[in-house]
Amino acid sequence: MLRILLLLAASLLLLSGCGIDADQDVLCRRLIPAFESDPITDAWTRMDAEDRRVVRIDYRTGGEAHWIACRYAGAATEAGRTVLEAVATDRTGWLPPMRFAMLEQWIRIKPPRHDAAPAAAIVRSPPTAWTPWLFLLQQVINAATVACVYGLLALGYTLVYAILGQINLAMGELTMVGAMLTAMAAAGLGMAGWADWPPALLGVLVLVMGFTAAQGWAMDRLVFRRLRKTRSHTPLIVAVGLSVAYQEGVRLLHGARDWWPAPVLADRHDLIGDGAFTVTALSSQLAILALTGGLYALLWGIMQRTPFGRAHRACTDDVAAAELVGVDVNRTVAITFAIGGGLAAVAGAVIALYYGGVNFFTGYLIGFKALAAAVVGGIGSVPGAMLGGALLGLVETFWSAYFVIAYKDIVAFGLLTLFLIYRPQGLLGQPRGRGD
């Protein structure tokens, strides 16, 4: 354990830089007047969660919230970082080749406007001694949202593994399904004028959770229950097959294009600043934190104070013994898969409404990272899943902010490798045998 803590300390000391590339930010902001005639206010820049070549700017004009996304040939510090490849807006989606070519011609002949959130808006005064610490605090706030996504999905992995000793690799695809359904529902709410109405958003979340919970239940009832006594790698192979089937099914039904829902709860709150840098938080970030905390507390209460929770703990200790004393193992496992599917849907909804850019492949890498978070925290441990998600979110966000973004995933999975070598049971997991 001491060795792991020393390795963690060494890793965090390394995280001490490049955030959003200023040149990419300025170039993307220069494109906004091509789509807007009114002055731009409250512009805020972020990078896409999955493709770090994409810079997205949320802004307000004429009292309405809009966004523009620019994809470059390379991420920050990489070759091609200022070569624009594609542009999308909340009104048009990704521009077709002809419109994009016309936009490139427009930017060559159009001088930059001073009301389009120019580069001066990024740094308003010389840095002070507090600026690095404020930037650090901003990364902690940004990491909290990422940690919520990983933590929620890691809970689904850990609940299933705790009771079966098997990893359902198709859980990431339930996140993708949740993200796609949320994106489509958000588009419908936008057309109805209810995009920022909290009860409507909550209703969408409940419906999506119900759908993916039913998908999780069906996975167990139709597939994994039949393989429960199998002592080979067949369940793992079947899970990979389910993952591919979900990906291809969604691709054939909805195509391979990205969905970019309009941002919701995008009001920005300035927390603290020194003139050179201001720490901000969005209403959506606060809502995500509150939602994740509430769901975790609800799950903890279910696991500790309900008959299902007692049955789950009994099956976790020894499935055969639990069955002998009258526990309905099949029902307990099915509910566990349903809960995992519902939590995966919440993670997908966060990805869709906060990050955007969801497609049929969204759940693949997210699923593996959430599995890494579950292993780091101690797969089988509910608190460990949230701890692992928080740790992975911090490492990813800090690395993206201070170092070359291209190596972010290498660092994340390198951390997983260290834990598998030196502490396979994770931070909060306990080495134990399983009774079948």
Question: What key attributes describe this structure?
Answer:
single chain, alpha+beta, ABC transporter involved in vitamin B12 uptake, BtuC, 2 domains, 14 helices, 7 strands, 59% helix
Q: What characterizes the major β-sheet?
A: 5 strands, antiparallel
Helix coverage percent: 55-70%
What is the tally of helical segments?
14
What gross morphology would you assign? globular
C-alpha Rg, in Å?
Answer: 23 Å
Distance between the termini: 29 Å
Describe this structure in words.
It is a single chain. The protein has 436 residues and is α+β, with helices and mostly antiparallel strands. The protein folds into two domains: 20-119; 131-422, ABC transporter involved in vitamin B12 uptake, BtuC (Orthogonal Bundle). The protein has helices spanning 2-14, 22-31, 97-109, 131-164, 171-192, 198-222, 234-254, 283-305, 307-317, 319-324, 329-355, 362-377, 382-402, 408-422, and strands at 41-47, 54-61, 64-72, 84-89, 93-94, 268-273, 278-282. The strands form two sheets. A five-stranded antiparallel β-sheet has the order 1-2-3-4-5, with helices on one face. A two-stranded antiparallel sheet has the order 6-7. α4 (131-164) packs parallel to α8 (283-305), α4 runs antiparallel to α13 (382-402) and α6 (198-222) packs across α11. The longest helix is centred in the middle third of the chain and has 34 residues, at 131-164. It starts with a helix and ends in a 14-residue tail after the last helix. Belongs to the binding-protein-dependent transport system permease family. LivHM subfamily.
